[in-house]
Amino acid sequence: xxxLAESGGGSVQAGGSxxxxxxxSAYTYRPYCMGWFRRVPGKEREAVAVIDxxxxxxxxxxxxxxxxxxxxNDKNTLQMNGLxxxxxxxxxxxxxxxxxxxxxxxxxxxxRYWGQGTHVTVSS
Length: 124
Description:
The protein is mainly β. A hairpin with a 6-residue loop joins strand 4 and strand 5. It has strands spanning 3-8, 10-13, 18-25, 32-39, 46-52, 57-59, 67-72, 75-80, 89-97, 113-114, 118-123. Helices cover 0% and strands 52% of the residues.
C-alpha cells in the first residue's frame, strides 16, 4: 500500500525557516512527480513546488528564490526560507506518475496519493 509520511511544519516568525519532508513507500511507478501543495481555508489548493525522479523541478512564482525542493531515495525535502505570513497554510505532499509539468499546469488530480497534511504558521 502506497504511503506518504510527512514531517516538519510548525510555527515561525516572518523571515524564518522551516523544513518539510515527505517519504513515499511502496510506490513503484517510474518516473514520478512528487511535490507539495498548500491550502488556505476558502481558497483553492495551490501547487508550491514539485520535483521528479529526473530531477526536474518547478516552483510557484510566490516561492521562487525562497523555497528549495530536493529528492533523495524517495524522500523529498522542502526547505522554506524567508517565510512570509502569506505562506501560512496546510501543506500536503503528493505523488503521481510521470515527469512533472510546470506548476502552473498542474492540478491536484494529477497526483494519486497524498499525505495527511502538515500545518505551517508564519507570524508577522
